[in-house]
């Protein structure tokens, strides 16, 4: 394995592990300091920390479907690892490597909660727009997907740049 490949895999792994640790740490803090307490207002009327045990998905849909979420997450993780492993080890793909690693960290963070607790700990609430309560893992996934979509749709990538995803394609 080339030095660049090893470096990128190590970078991906470090991003994934650091992301999971940060997510789980913030959720631990939420449980310790927010569970059973009144919300903590950071910016009155705008942003607060509020403890929630989320047994569904975004906006509270699909309540108590933990098995479905675990299966979907496992499929997504397999696909993301496939993409990371197959993605070329070229400078122009480094940001996409990082974005995939951050999405993986977010997926694992919420998956660990579902396995361990049978719910996901959420605690960040934008009161101003009454946005659903979310957590750090949700931020990872949402922001990375938006950035990735913008880069892929409006960046300098062409369809053939993603031929590495085709089965049988030889990866350099």
Structure in a nutshell:
This protein has 172 residues and is mostly helical. Helix content is 56%, strand content 11%.
- Average pLDDT confidence is 91
Give the topology string: H per helix, E per strand: HEEHHEH
> What's the number of structural domains?
1
Question: What is the count of β-strands?
Answer: 3
**End-to-end gap:** 10 Å
Largest sheet: 3 strands, antiparallel
User: Which class of secondary structure composition applies to the elements?
Assistant: mainly alpha
**What spatial order of strands do you see in the largest sheet?**
1-2-3
Radius of gyration: 18 Å
Helix content: 55-70%
What does this entry look like structurally?
- The protein has 172 residues and is mainly α.
- It has one domain.
- The chain is 56% helix and 11% strand.
- It contains four helices and three strands; from the N terminus they run αββααβα.
- The termini are close together.
Relevant terms:
about 170 residues, mainly alpha, 3-stranded antiparallel sheet, elongated
Write the layout of secondary structure elements.
Blueprint: H1 3-34, E1 40-43, E2 47-54, H2 66-86, H3 94-117, E3 120-126, H4 136-154
Antiparallel strand pairs: 1-2, 2-3
Helix pairs in contact: 1-3, 2-3, 3-4
